[in-house]
Every structure is written in C-alpha cells, then in structure tokens.
Amino acid sequence: MNLISIPAFQDNYIWVLVDDDRRCIIVDPGESTPILQAIQQNGWQPEAILLTHHHNDHVGGVTELRAQFPHLVVYGPAETQNKGTTCLVEDGENLLILRTAFSVFATPGHTSGHLCYYSKPYLFCGDTLFSGGCGRLFEGTPAQMYQSLQKINALPDDTLICCAHEYTLGNMTFSMSLLPRDPAIQDYYQKVKELRAKNQKTLPVLLENERKNNVFLRIDDIDLIEKINQETNLQQPEERFAWLRSKKDNFR
Predict the structure, then answer these.
(1) pTM here?
(2) Which of 28, 108, 130, 229 suits a disulfide with 144, CB 3.0-4.6 Å?
C-alpha cells in the first residue's frame, strides 16, 4: 500500500492508502473537495473510510463522499455514529480492508472515544499524537491522554506517525522554550523550521525520532523533570504530563 497525504483546510492532512489496483482507504476526510479532486486526478477507487473521532475537521467530508460512492464502508468509534459511520469499531478489534490488516485501539484524551488504527508501519492517530506534541484535552483527562500516549510509545521504532495536523513547528517552538540546550530538540527544530519556510510537509514521522524530540513522550526524562521542578514538584508521570499540557495550552 502506498501512503499519500492530501492537504485540507489550513493545516489538516487527509491520509490515503492506495493499493496496486488504485483502490484506496481514506482516513479522516474533514472536507470532500480535495479528496474528490485527488480521486478524479489519480483514478482511485475508494473502498473504505477510517474515522478516528467525531470532530468536524475529521468527518465533514463523509456525507459527500458516500453520496458519490454509496458502496463506501465507513469505520469509526461510537462517537461518530451520527457522522456517516456505517460500521462501528472499538478497542481491540482487528480489521481486514483491501487485504490489509488494521488493529484498532482506544486513545481517549482529545475526545472520550478517540481511536487509532495501526497497520505496520503506519499509525493513523488523528489528534492524539502530533510531531513534537499531542492533542488538546477537550473531553478526556490528562491521565487518559498520558496512558494513550504510552500505548503509542509501545509500538515499534519504525512506526510512521500519520497524524492529522501540520503543527510541528509550533510544537517544537514550545519544546525549545522548555529545553533550549537539548541537542535532539535543537536539531529537529532547525530541520522543521527549514521545511516549513519552503512550505514543505513535516509528516509522517518515525516514532523512533518522536521519542527523542517530543517532550510529551519524555515525561520521565531527567532534564524535563528538572525543568518542571523549577516551578513545582510532581512525583507521578501523569501529574507531570498534566503540567506540561497546561503549559502548552497557555504557550504563545
């Protein structure tokens, strides 16, 4: 399967997996126009849609896509059942679509019912993990999001993080404000800055690299703990994660 990203809105990505017969699987189509244009230009045959959560910038294109392609099967969590989903899926399920296996696991935090889909090496993680960051907590708790990120962090090094937004530069700017002398963060920040200056994509990214560059995956890192301890003393990793997420929420 070939992986393709389609830009949408200001900073969204719609991910598409295309097989040798040009049949495709679409992930989180927030709007229909860019994906319909890509389908027409490339002669793709859409067979399925995967939804990670219910926010409109991830599901807004489903109705029009199904109008154009009535045979489409739309997989999604219970929170998407009124967004065009035809097949509800939940944590622990395994899907076989176009001879491609996907494992489904729950990652609550951004929303209460958020799901991720993993088909080695691709992880479609919606708004749970971003390059250099993680999703805001609109419905879930810091403890839930921390545990969700732990699930992702347990995947193989070569996992390709296919998240839904081009937030990398802003995330790495925040990381530099926390750990300005960290060599991995410095290096990645410069690379991302150069890419975005040329309007180039920073995604997908390897999980192996995120473990070095993403402070939300470095909650037990001694340098980060020392930084946190300059303001407060938090013993539990979930508490440190909550502090970090709050800092990011208020970062300008």
Answers:
(1) 0.96
(2) 108
